[in-house]
Structure formats: C-alpha cells, structure tokens
Amino acid sequence: MIDKEVLSVDIRQLQYLIEVARLKSFTKAAESLYITQPTISKTIRQMEEELGIVLFDRVGKRISLTDAGQIMVNQAQNIVKSFNNMSAELDDLRNLKKGHIRIGLPPMVGASFFPKIIGQFHKRYPDITIQLFEDGAKKVEADTDSGALDVGITVLPVTVEGLECFSFVEEKLNLLVHPSHRLAGREAAPLTELVEESFVLFREDFVLHDRIITECVRVGFQPRVIYESSQWDLISEMVAANLGIALLPETVCREVDPSRVTILPLVDPVIPWNLGIIWREDRYLSFAAREWIRFAQEVLSSGDG
Fold first, then answer.
1. Would the pLDDT of 126 be above 90?
2. Which domains are present in the chain?
3. Which residue from 107, 136, 158, 234 lies 20 to 30 Å from 144 (Cα-Cα)?
4. CDD domains recorded for this chain (predicted)?
C-alpha cells in the first residue's frame, strides 16, 4: 500500500512520466522536453522510490508501462490537464484579448467562407493569432474532440459525441457532367440514373466520400469510383476531361467554369451539405477561441461573411 505521506510528486514529474509513456523512450522524451536523458531517468527513478512501485518494465532499450505505471499515467493526465486549464484561465486574465487559435477546416470550405471573417477578426483583435489546418471533415472532428484543435468547421451532422455546433450553411449537392454527357440536357438528374457512371469522389477522410456512397447503396447500387482527391478543382477538371462524373456542393459549383462542365441538380434523393462550426463545450476554451466562435456566429448570421 502506498503511504500517502510520500506522495510529493509535482506537476513537472507527472509531465515527464506522461511523455516517457507516450514515446516509450527516455531518450525521445528528454528530446521532446528539451532536457537531458539522465535528468528524466533520475526523475522517474525517484518517483518509483518515493511511491514504492515500478512504473516501467525495462527490457534492454525497450520500456513498457507496468499496471501500476498505467494507473499513474491515467491519473497524471487528468491532473496535468486540470493544471493546464487553470494556467490557461489565469493567462487569459493577465493577457486579456491575446492568444492563439487553432482552427481546422476542409480545403473546399476555407476559400468560400472564411477569408473575410478572419480578416475582420484580425482587424478587431490584432494580437490574437490564428493557425489554420486543412483536413477532411472526419479528421477535423477527431482533432477538435481530442483538443488538438480549438475550433473546427465540418459537415453536419457530426459523428463524434459531445461536440457543440453552430450551423451556418444549408445546401445540397449538384451533379457535374461533361457537356457531351447523356444527362447534360436535363433539368435535373435522379441518383438512380448514375448506376453505370464512373465517379470522381473526395478522399475517404472527407465526410462526403461516405455520404455519397451510402446514398448510392441506399437506392440500390455500389458506385464505381475511378479517382479520389482532396481538391474540388481537380475533381471538376476530371469531369471536364470526360473521365467521370462528380457530386459537389452548390457553393463549390459556383466556382466551376460552366463552359467546360455542365451542372444540374441531383434529385431522388437530394443529398444535403450542411456546414457548422464545432467545439468542445466541456473543455476549457481560451478567450480567443470563445471570442472567435461568437464573432463568426455574428458575421455568418448577418450574411456579411
């Protein structure tokens, strides 16, 4: 049994423990923390001696957590997270309206909706910096959930529980075909008429990839996918080269050259494309992140973005 009187472990020691467990290496943990390897090894050894337990099973140069070590790491993560939240809140009080925001968004969303908003926000808060990460909606959701991102922009509905959201776009997908395509003269095209077509889709880390395939299967066929990309303009160019068809959101379609690609509404069924801003309400958000969410809601609701 661990004597409570010897539990004099500090935050620094817990951070060392977490980093060694994460990287499974004293050397790599030392490099990550910008300290020497003997320092981190000595710290872990002192913890083991004070607690009377073995935290790591050392076999040659390989290490792994013991059962006791796993318990310590789990609790240490909670303690360090609480400490960091406290420190962040105190920093906000000392540095009001200063900070850094990490925002994730799919590539096709950024250019259409956010340059003006970010410009207006920077004008109002010049000391708040914004870092943008372009990824598919699935990764944006996962990184917002984990805390790697403060705020995300994604396709709704979200698939991760616990994320708060603000919806700001409600559109649907259009069909893109080559001007010589058999459907080019139609006013609209049912999804069921695309059974024999070759599809150009977004990559698997994009929500639309799964959504389009799911809708095709629901109406009775498995789409034949010939190419996947993360860039909407490359997808439209594939259609312009008569290599296949594509389904893209209305906003994106407005950027496509209508002389090279024919765009028509997709019906039976209509596939919605709704966008939202997401964040974790149960995790501490800096003033900068909270203010960006409020500001973006204000601008997008007014239609000025």
1. no
2. 4-94 (1.10.10.10), 99-168+274-302 (3.40.190.10), 171-273 (3.40.190.10)
3. 234
4. PBP2_CidR
